[in-house]
Amino acid sequence: MSLERPDTADDAAIERTPDELEALLGDLVVGRDDHLNAPAFVIRPDTVQETLRTLKEQAGYDHLSVVSAQEYENRYESIYHLKKYDDPTQEVSVVVPADKDDPVSESAEPVFRTADWHEREAYDLIGIEYDDHPDLRRILLPETWQGHPLSMDYDKDRPQIATLPEHANPLEDHHKDAESDTMFLNIGPHHPATHGVLHLKTVLDGEQVADVEPDIGYLHRSEEQMAQSGTYRHQIMPYPDRWDYISAGLLNEWAYARAAEDLADIEVPEYAQVIRTMGAEMCRIAAHMLALATFALDVNGDFTATFMYAINDRERVQDLLEDLTGQRLMFNYFRLGGVVWDLPEPREEFFSNTRDFLDQLPESIEEYHNLITSNEVFQMRTIDTGILPPEVAKNYGATGPVARGSGVDYDLRRDDPYGYYDELDWDVVTEDGCDNFSRLLVRMREVEESAKIIEQCVDLLEDWPEDERTIQANVPRTLRPDDDTEIYRAVEGAKGELGIYIRSDGTDKPARFKIRSPCFSNLQTLPEMANGEYIPDVIAALGSLDIVLGEVDR
Amino acid sequence: MAAAPAQLFPEFIVDTLGLDSVIGEVAASLVAAFVVGNIILAFTGVAGPWAKRKITAAFTDRIAVNRIGPYGLLIIPAAAVQLLAKELIIPEGVDRPSWDIAPVLLPASALLGFSVIPMGQLGPINLHLADPEVGFALVFAFASIASVSLVMAGYASNNKYSLLGGLRAVAQNLAYEIPLIVTAMSVVIFAGTLQMSGVVGAQTETLVTIAGVSIPSWYAFVNPFAFVLFLTANMAEIGRNPFDIPEAPTEIVAGYQTEYSSAYFVLFYLGEFVHIFLGGAILAVTFLGGASGPGPESISFIWFVVKIWGFFLFTQWARAALPRVRIDQLIEIGWKGMLVLSFANLVLTAVIVGVIA
After folding, report:
1. Using the beta-carbon criterion (under 8 Å), do A193 and B62 form an inter-chain contact?
2. What are the start-end ranges of the H helices in A326-435?
3. Residue A435 contacts B where some CB pair is shorter than 8 Å
4. Which of A526, A541, B265, B315 could form a disulfide with B260 if both were Cys (CB 3.0 to 4.6 A apart)?
5. In total, how many domains does chain B have?
6. Least CA distance to A182: which residue of chain B?
7. Taking the model in full, what pTM does it have?
8. What ipTM, to 2 d.p.?
């Protein structure tokens, strides 16, 4: 094609039609395979970097949300779901088919750092190999695992041996150094401050960290495969609660609900949307309270009073959620097309309980500020440690409070509205410090914003006419979305962009169900924050990332 | 001047029982040491399994142990049985016998410190084992042995977390022991003696009388600046928040004691608590008038107990409220801040005392 458009990064924010994008990519595109959420261009497996670089630098698609891979009868396929941090409604997918017998495709890692882990996962679970990848190893399964579990010819009856010696002492070669004396240290998988079973392969130079590499997968529970063997209508919804199990359940359920509802074209009644919004924000408060509590634990030391105070506040939110859903952690409250039941009777009592909680919240937050954020020792410990510059954060696909603590103004609730958020009055919180302190501050301020949202929802629900309280749309008993329909939809979870990619095959179960976990991408930034810092700062940085291993490993 | 100090405890036993021989004196000393040691161990027994939990619970809005016995007090024997009944795990490659000596050395060094502490009177008994002329220097020397124990434990455990903890312990003790002792020296300049009874005796005079209440010349009142310095350095010396760097459970698991279990773990735990009480005792003797307080001399031991438990409470309060500093910040505070301030305090005190005297 001779029509080379003189595009520069200046007009990166301009929205382009799919045809304009195709023209921009020119010869790179070999076909179209549009998804419900975005145009999708099929390219050759050896032009991945060129295509993504063009889209990133000339069209402004600077956010690689997720890489979802799958195997078809006749080919393998990797899909790069791209977005813009400035406007996440502008999406484009790049589909890279790979040969069935020799699935090799070019790595996107040189263009987007975040592709590193995502491609390792695709290699691990599906079996696609990525050329030019800096470190193509298994990521979730042990190194000795045989076969790729989500590929078609995987033999699940084959006995697997995961030997301990194979897994230990991984850095024999690079912690020997003639210049300096370093020490290799395993932090975790059993360690008081790894927030679950996370293993940090750390190389220390004295007390300073020379290198740290997170080793994940200890909590891998085949969540994607379990979703693929459940029916859309009822059998998948209980699982999202178990991804980020730190009481962010409703936020996770919403991710699935949003993707599946858009896939099956289900309209959710407004009343249910308000209830969803309220419930989700309660979950966000609960999740952020725990993040605050454990961060205080990491920085102050065990037995800090802040931990128990924050847990106490979280307990109060959980009481409200228990009233609403009947559960304290694994809510299973959303249904496709609405929620499972209406607010608890008597409604006045629920409203007054909620208001009581909201009324005492400012006092609690004030107390946390007195206890930790205004403490000079705490500031000394957290300000200017664990630095994550905004450009690095974007390159790693960081989202949620981690990105907002680096000044990246990205919140799907506002930028890609769903539920009832765009009708309500609230603000997106950002901090420019890029350090551990900023990330904590973002969470604390977001709790206040969530409280604002809940208050408005309660006002709305109180005055809702009794005959218009429709909690569920009319949804068929069995859902069979059209064959080969693909969709990627994300919501703002407690930790960031929680997205679901679903491909339907005409049956009542998804053919591919891919979870884009915000913790997974956020955790990948840890080495950027931690290298060169002291051990306590690594622990603080890890705490400020607020990961949940259940969601990282899925 | 206050009444002449009563007989030391061993001499009291000798006189009371009429033991004149050398063997009798040795036996009396051992008995006296046994009694004093057990008092301290009893404190520790109450503090570790029960008081610490109750105090932390009070700070964090919880209830803590309340099921076994009145106020949960019987948790103390229960915890003792439970801890001692655990298996003593000896990891591969530990460097024996230093691995075995370390847990004994820590409580021993801290208990040794109490040999020169005047703990006040209980009835006719003056709980004070020995009063050498260099008592003040001795008590710091004994307390410092603890860091040797921590290094031994850290190095002998054959564990990287233990090693880090051991190294941190040395770095911390070096950085804080000097300011601690230099600050204590300013008190010695005031008192003009290194003898414990002399230092305590010098604090019994009345400083000022306000509305009929006479305030004794405790050095905490005479020189509050030195008191704060000493308190801070003391917290670091005994390794409590915000200076609990050698253990730092969220960073290096449990530091030097990571590999210890069962009886050895109990010994470490014990040693730390005795060390806190010793820290409190040194603070009381140096700045808070030793065992003195209102009321008759014969119950002054109660005041001593109140003071060291007050210090214990303070450490627990700090643990519930304060963030931990980082190792490099700790060293910086020690060498660049505390050391300079403590020397300034020493020089100023020396000048003032020299001009007045």
Report:
1. no
2. 347-368, 376-382, 390-395, 400-404, 412-415
3. no
4. B265
5. 1
6. B160
7. 0.86
8. 0.82
